[in-house]
Amino acid sequence: MTIRVLLADDQPLLRTGFRLILEAEQDITVVGEAGDGATALEQARALLPDVVLMDIRMPGVDGIEATRRIVREQKGGHVPRVLVLTTFDLDEYIVEALRAGASGFLLKDVPPDELVQAIRVVAAGDAIVAPSVTRRLLDKFAALLPPADRQPTPALLERLTERELEVLRLIAKGMSNAEIAAELVVSETTVKTHVGNVLTKLGLRDRVQAVVLAYETGLVVPGAFS
User: Fold this and answer.
1) What integer pLDDT is reported at residue 144 of this predicted model?
2) What is the DSSP code (8-state) at residue 147?
3) How far apart are CA 72 and CA 206, in angstroms?
4) Which residue stretches of the chain have pLDDT < 70?
5) What pLDDT sits at residue 135?
6) Could you give the CA distance from residue 125 to residue 215 in angstroms, rounded to a whole number?
7) Which of 12, 29, 30, 110 has its CA 20 to 30 A from that of 120?
8) How far from the centroid of its chain's Cα atoms is residue 196's Cα?
9) Residue 36: Cβ within 10 Å count
10) Rounded distance, CA 162 to CA 106, Å?
11) Every domain of the chain and the residues it spans
12) What is the distance between the alpha carbons of residues 17 and 63, in angstroms, rounded to a whole number?
């Protein structure tokens, strides 16, 4: 199945570079480009991409608001997955993009093969949580961000068993299923079951939202994994 990608970035040169990288792959096609958030919204509605590669800083409607609207608007049950791009040092509000519904984020200098793999992973319904970058971003900015629209209460975490809480902490640490399995000395299949239970019980879409919620509820705190 071909993965349909929409490129949203206000720098034409970057869009051209991404297009060249992605269209060299047999299973990926770029269906459109947008230089601002408003155009990205229009293109997402019209072209129904599987993945939107979204810049944060764009004129007019920024990438955070565009992500929020794209994820919220469903057409025939189709919801594009949004993969956000950041330069890290400048984009303090990347966590807000994750809260808005993005399925993950990459640095703009990501190697081509990692970009391609990330798009495939996101298109398949998983999330990209780069452990080192995730920890640095959340540790640096979590205490400074404005409150989320939905503030979880401690009772939310009471839905989880002790083992599920432990798995959630390790997800927040940026560990993969294989790494969690090794840490807990259980099978990867068992970890997948625990992760699925965590997401279902907390009403989360993917691991990225789980990381953000772990910080918002105080299950982990900025600096915990430095």
Assistant:
1) 53
2) P
3) 15
4) 74-76, 88-93, 129-154, 221-226
5) 59
6) 23
7) 12
8) 17
9) 18
10) 32
11) 3-128, 148-217
12) 19
Give the tokens for residue 63. 């990438």
The tokens for 193 are: 């079951």
Under 8 Å between Cβ of 54 and 66: yes
Residues in the chain: 226
Give ∠ CA 31-109-84 in degrees, rounded to 5.
50
What is the Cβ-side half-sphere exposure of residue 1, based on CA atoms within 13 angstroms?
8
**Architecture of the structural domain at 148-217:** Orthogonal Bundle (1.10)
186 contact partners, CB below 8 Å, separation of at least 6:
none
Element of type H or E holding 4: strand 3-8
In 3D, which of 48, 56, 59 has the Cα closest to residue 6? 48
Q: Which contacts (CB < 8 Å, 24+ apart) does range 143-146 have?
A: 143/222, 144/92, 145/92, 145/93, 145/95, 145/96, 146/96
Question: At 195, which amino acid appears?
Answer: V
- Look at residue 171 in the predicted model and tell me its pLDDT: 87
Contact 87, 107 (CB under 8 A): yes
Superfamily of segment(s) 3-128: Response regulator (3.40.50.2300)
Identical topology for domains 3-128 and 148-217 = no
| 75-96: pLDDT as tens digits | 667 889 999 887 765 556 677 7
Question: Three-class SS of residue 121?
Answer: helix
Q: What is the pLDDT of residue 134?
A: 60
Amino acid at 46: A
d(CA 115, CA 129): 13
pLDDT given at position 7: 97
